[in-house]
Amino acid sequence: MDVLTEVLSTMRVSSALYARVEAAAPWGIDFEVHHAIKFCLVTRGSCCLVVPGKEPQTLAEGDFLLTTGGARYTLCDAPGSPSRPLTELLTGDPHGVDQAVRLGGPGETATLLNGILTFAASEESYFLGLLPPLLLIRREQAREAGFDVYLHRLTVEAQDPSPGAQLVANWLSGILFVHSVRVYARSEGARTGWLAALADRKLALALQAVHQRLAHRWTVQELAEVAGMSRSAFASAFKALVGKAPLEYVSDWRMQVAKGLLHEGSQKLSAVASVLGYESDTAFSKAFKRTTGATPAEYRRKGRELRAGSLGQ
User: Fold this and answer.
1) Cα torsion 61, 134, 37, 246: sign
2) Alpha-carbon Rg of the chain, whole angstroms?
3) Residue 258: how many CB atoms within 10 A of its CB?
4) What is the pLDDT of residues 9-19, one digit of tens each?
5) At what angle do helices 231-242 and 220-227 cross, to 10 degrees?
6) Distance between CA atoms of 89 and 19, rounded to whole angstroms?
7) Which of 19, 39, 2, 70 is nearest to 177 (CA)?
């Protein structure tokens, strides 16, 4: 299994909130910092994307925007138009799939499908730290990648009041998330970050080795040799693209796998420790608590309580 597939396969949408926005100029919507993944699909007309510190960009019909890492941005008909926070505009059932928001004046109209995706708590913070803050997929890119069909289906499901529409919309959102990351990874925009490291022929070899042999007690020198680079050049290039030192990445990924094993199964701590390369469950427990602030047993118990609570709702 390649690294991107392995990482993305652990992403599970736990909830999704949608709002269909019908806006007429002048209008603007502020998307405040929210520790989840937000997206916007322009279904009719066009709008302007304003991100603090960056040049405004025009989003045309069929363009798909996905933001991570708590990014703050504004969608509007033009820079400078009056804007309001999205939270002030949402009404009705907060879990409904058809929340219609109408705003603006007498000018040109645009229709947007906005959404907020949340993932299992054990995964969210890790992946938001790996991905770029903003992924913009143009209509042509979506068509070439073959997921414009899913974009259209999501638009239909998000407005469908029939039974099961919310579940289908959640599944489609997960598919679109994966497709967006894959398309972005092949684009010119992926010049820095974890995705850029995957695109780098040498660094990708080291990442693949880490994911294939997670229990191995890696050293920077060994990973540099796998990449066919000197130790100093490898460490510098890895930190520059990934944003983490090589062994920090190894440790973080081990903890991510540990969370998944604790969340999903009932393996003994000794078995989990062995999978991750720790000599004993005591050593694993100390490392886990140092990273997460909770012991493996506490983390597993909390996960069970959360799942029981969601089933009882």
Assistant:
1) positive
2) 21
3) 24
4) 666 666 667 77
5) 90
6) 9
7) 39
Percent helix, strand and coil across the chain, each to the nearest 5: 50, 20, 30
Neighbour tally for 191: CB within 10 Å: 11
The verdict on residue 312 lying in a domain is: no
Question: At 270, which amino acid appears?
Answer: S
Looking at residue 199, its pLDDT comes to 82
CB 19 within 8 A of CB 115: yes
Residues 239 and 130 grouped into a single domain: no
Q: Show the tokens assigned to 184.
A: 């972005």
What pTM value is reported for the model? 0.72
Q: pLDDT tens, 103-121?
A: 899 999 999 988 777 766 5
Pair 154, 83 in one domain: yes
Give 235-261 pLDDT, tens digit per residue: 999 999 888 999 999 998 899 889 888
Residue numbers of the domain that contains 256: 194-307
Query: For position 236, which CATH number holds?
Result: 1.10.10.60
The Cα–Cα gap between 16 and 18 comes to 7
Peptide bond before residue 85 is cis, with ω within 30 degrees of 0: no
> Residues near 301 by Cβ (< 8 Å), separated by ≥ 6?
none
pLDDT tier for residue 92 given thresholds of 50, 70 and 90: very low
- Determine how β-strand 84-85 pairs with β-strand 28-31: parallel
